[in-house]
Amino acid sequence: MVCQEEPLVNQINELYEKISSLESLKPSEDVNMLFTQLVVTCMPPNPIDVTKLCHQIQEMRSNLIRLCGEAEGLLEKHFSTILASYDVPLQHLDIFPYYNNYVKLSLLEYNILTQNSTHVPKRVAFVGSGPLPLTSIVLALNHLPDTRFDNYDIDSSANEMAARLAEPDPNLSGRMKFHTKDVMSLGKEELEEYDVVFLAALVGMNKEEKVKVIHHLAKHMAPGSTLMVRSAHGARAFLYPVVEPEDLCGFEVLSVFHPTDEVINSVVIARKADDRSSPVYSLEWEQNHTHNFSPIRMQSCKCLEIQPFNPLNHGNIIGELASSAHQ
């Protein structure tokens, strides 16, 4: 069956075909051009509901999200390596082409957090932190100077790269740790220690995986603690998995924010319910969402928590790559 879709979906599908035919997703002129076109296509606000698209397009979307994640991961590893070559890596964060996007998204999330909380968090967990943990770094340096950050990623090499960036800073190295663990292996004794848990956009790269992760967090986070989840809206859902309020069973959804500017991610903030008898948690929901799941694999980097290859800030990543090489 051939899907008859609107022109926007056809444009995205054409770009997907070109991206999926690339020999490599490492930063290059072709990679930059195609992902720039993709973001420009998906960025404008659009009322499209990706859940109502046909199976063929749904499958394409799922594959495209994974390709975007892989490309962003390769980009982050490249720049993490460059930054680690400096004596003080954190003084050179702006060499990363999308650093300003992290600054904007982190400020947005900090403002949402403070508007929905009465106290400054003492301990924060970031799940899916990757080789270039800019969200944690920006929050720790700019907004939460006394907060401890625990970063979790399933990829040990990503954690090693990230640690090399934080260790030279005496203030940050004492407050920021990196742990090689799958989110599904984190138990109550770990998760209930945190006032706030951030869930990166590509931890759980489809609806089933995402719901399973959220369900796990609902079972083990401390009552009253906060969950910050990245999502997407409209055509931007071709770049990120979507989290709906009804997916956060076990949590009270406090606010959902859909940016319309160059910050692509939507942000959902929720509070952990007091106990399992809460009306937002039901045994029927648990039974309906704890079967037929494949083993979860945390994406090895946070990848698409900001838009990949944002053309509004940096139109030529190749020039950035060339000028940023620190010999």
3D architecture notes:
With 327 residues, the chain is an alpha/beta fold. The protein has a single domain (1-327), classed as Rossmann fold (3-Layer(aba) Sandwich). Helix content is 40%, strand content 12%. It has 11 helices and 7 strands. Strand 4 (196-199), helix 9 (207-220) and strand 5 form a beta-alpha-beta unit. Helix 1 packs antiparallel against helix 2 (29-42), helix 1 (7-20) packs across helix 3 (55-84) and helix 4 packs across helix 5. Its EC number is 2.5.1.43. Pfam families: NAS. Synthesizes nicotianamine, a polyamine which serves as a sensor for the physiological iron status within the plant, and/or might be involved in the transport of iron.
Question: What topology, given as strand order, has the largest sheet?
Answer: 3-2-1-4-5-7-6
Shape: globular
**Spans with pLDDT under 50 lasting ≥5 residues?**
277-327
In CATH, what is the class?
A: Alpha Beta
